[in-house]
Specification:
globular; single chain; mainly beta; Porin; 1 helix; 8 strands; 151 residues
Length: 151
């Protein structure tokens, strides 16, 4: 994976949500069962009542595959039960890897909740189950949490 690819991916993730009129942007951190830690950005855009799009960019910061970058987009259903807003979603994306590893496509299922703290801030917690299709098929959960800002 070269630097141009990383820069292009970050630019796309920053520009696309603005064009789509994002209503929330957040930062996240997650861990998988192998203790790989991922940090990332999340944005959400409503489509119709109770349905929205969620885009996420995450980068592994430790482990033997440090630098692994996943970019996922998912269609999510939301059901507000204030102060909680549970959601489930299904989507896909791409996994870019450091040299020596294969890139691949991803299938992403997620479930979680937002917890309203104070307008416009909320915490979110979710579980992603990611299947990565590359030279081999890898899969597993990522347990994630973060903070989101709505506008």
């Amino acid at each position: 994976m070269n630097k141009r690819t990383i820069v292009a991916a970050i630019i796309v993730l920053i520009i696309v949500p603005v064009w789509a009129s994002a209503t929330s942007i957040g930062i996240s951190a997650g861990i998988d069962p192998t203790m790989m830690i991922m940090i990332g950005t999340v944005t959400e855009v409503p489509v119709i009542d109770y349905v929205g799009l969620r885009a996420q960019l995450s980068v592994a910061v430790n482990s033997g595959i440090a630098g692994l970058m996943t970019m996922n987009a998912a269609v999510c259903g939301y059901y507000p039960l204030l102060p909680f807003i549970p959601f489930i979603g299904l989507g896909g994306g791409i996994a870019l890897t450091p040299s020596g590893f294969n890139w691949g496509w991803t299938l992403d299922a997620l479930a979680g909740t937002h917890i309203a703290i104070a307008e416009p801030v909320s915490l979110f917690f979710d579980v992603h189950y990611i299947v990565r299709f590359s030279a081999v098929i890898t899969y597993g959960p990522i347990y994630e949490g973060g903070i989101s800002f709505s506008f």
